Structures are given as structure tokens and as C-alpha cells.
């Protein structure tokens, strides 16, 4: 399993503002074959019902572990709340309905992009799909829902923290009215 560096570039209490930032970054990125992945901890039956309606065939397991209930075993997730949700390789149009279904529950939505394009006027070279990701954490400040919060954070991913990559992070943050906060997490890919 490889890792990328996820740089926090915008934290806001406004979910619409976070979504606008994500849309702006998606407009910058190459998304021809992009996909979106979801990771969440669902605690309420209402949120679970809404999320299952958005993502039929959802992969999940009980927070205590797969041996206590899972989609793999054919169990009903409503009987095992809270449940961890992991869903991969969905079309981009599933992201916003998923985010809208979450209510107060925490999640990470990651867009697997084709590339961050070159930006000659900023001296930035093309970054391939291997390191081109964008993550929105909802009701959490971190990628893994360990730091629950009432705000939402936009993270851009690159190869690492060398000067060229930091220049890209700063440039992307400026495009959404944010700034690199200094928070960097290692993201499992």
C-alpha cells in the first residue's frame, strides 16, 4: 500500500463553502476518469437509511469489527450501529448526495483524480494520478474520523513536502480562498 501527503488547505464550519472549494479544485484537476471513495462511521438509523439510498450495495462492518456484523456476511447494518462504511470507485456524481446524507456523522470523501495539471505561470509541473487526490472531511478534521469536529476540512494530496509540492499546495489553497494550515497527514491509498 502506498501513501500520499494530504495537506489541509481550508477548514470551515460551512459545508456549502467546503463543497464550493471542492468544486473549484475539481474544475482545476484532470477528472476524465476520476472516481470517488467514501469512508465514514454511521451512528444513526436515519443517516444509515439515507446513505444506503445514495450508495446501494454499500460495504460496511460493525464498529467492533467484521465478526460482529458486516455486509460481507449479509447482515442488516441497522442491527449493528455504529458501522464503518468503506465504498470505493464510485462515479463523481455520488459525492454530493453522500455528503448531504451524512447529517452530523463524520466521513472522508476522496476524489481519485487523473492528475493535477501543470500551471506554467506558477512554475508547477503535472502530477500524475498516483499522487493526485482531493479529500473533504465532513464533521472531522482528519482523514480517519478520529478528530471529530463541527467543521469540515479540504485536503489536497501530492507526492510529499518538497518545495515544488508545497508551492502547489499553496497555489491550490489560494484558488479556494484558503491557506495551507501546516497540517499534513499520511494518507493510505
Radius of gyration: 17 Å
Global outline: elongated
Helix percentage range = 10-25%
How many angstroms separate the termini?
A: 6 Å
Overall average residue pLDDT: 92
Number of helices: 4
Give the assembly state of these chains. Answer: single chain
Poorly predicted tracts of residues:
none
Can you give a write-up of this model?
The chain is of the alpha+beta class and 189 residues long. 23% of the residues lie in helices and 31% in strands. The protein has helices spanning 15-28, 45-54, 95-101, 163-175, and strands at 3-12, 35-42, 60-62, 83-90, 106-112, 115-116, 127-128, 133-138, 152-158, 184-188. The strands form two sheets. The protein has an eight-stranded antiparallel beta sheet with strand order 3-4-2-5-8-9-1-10, with helices on one face. Strands 6-7 form a two-stranded antiparallel ribbon. The longest helix is centred in the first third of the chain and has 14 residues, at 15-28. It is elongated. The termini are close together. The relative contact order is 0.27.
Chart the SSEs and their pairings:
Blueprint: E1 3-12, H1 15-28, E2 35-42, H2 45-54, E3 60-62, E4 83-90, H3 95-101, E5 106-112, E6 115-116, E7 127-128, E8 133-138, E9 152-158, H4 163-175, E10 184-188
Antiparallel strand pairs: 1-9, 1-10, 2-4, 2-5, 3-4, 5-8, 6-7, 8-9
Amino acid at each position: 500500500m502506498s501513501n500520499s501527503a494530504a495537506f489541509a488547505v481550508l477548514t470551515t464550519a460551512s459545508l456549502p463553502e467546503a463543497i464550493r472549494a471542492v468544486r473549484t479544485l475539481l474544475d482545476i484537476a484532470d477528472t476524465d476518469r476520476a472516481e470517488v471513495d467514501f469512508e465514514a462511521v454511521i451512528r444513526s438509523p436515519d443517516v444509515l437509511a439515507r446513505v444506503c439510498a445514495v450508495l446501494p450495495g454499500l460495504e460496511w462492518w460493525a464498529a467492533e469489527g467484521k465478526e460482529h456484523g458486516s455486509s460481507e456476511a449479509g447482515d442488516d447494518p441497522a442491527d449493528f450501529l455504529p458501522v464503518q462504511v468503506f465504498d470505493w470507485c464510485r462515479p463523481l456524481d455520488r459525492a454530493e448526495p453522500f455528503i448531504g446524507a451524512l447529517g452530523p456523522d463524520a466521513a472522508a470523501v476522496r476524489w481519485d483524480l487523473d492528475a493535477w495539471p501543470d500551471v506554467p505561470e506558477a512554475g508547477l509541473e503535472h502530477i500524475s494520478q498516483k499522487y493526485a487526490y482531493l479529500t473533504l472531511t465532513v464533521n472531522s478534521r482528519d482523514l480517519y474520523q478520529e478528530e471529530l469536529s463541527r467543521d469540515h476540512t479540504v485536503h489536497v494530496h501530492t507526492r510529499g513536502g518538497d518545495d515544488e509540492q508545497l508551492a502547489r499546495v499553496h497555489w491550490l489553497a489560494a484558488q479556494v480562498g484558503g491557506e495551507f494550515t501546516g497540517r499534513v497527514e499520511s494518507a493510505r491509498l
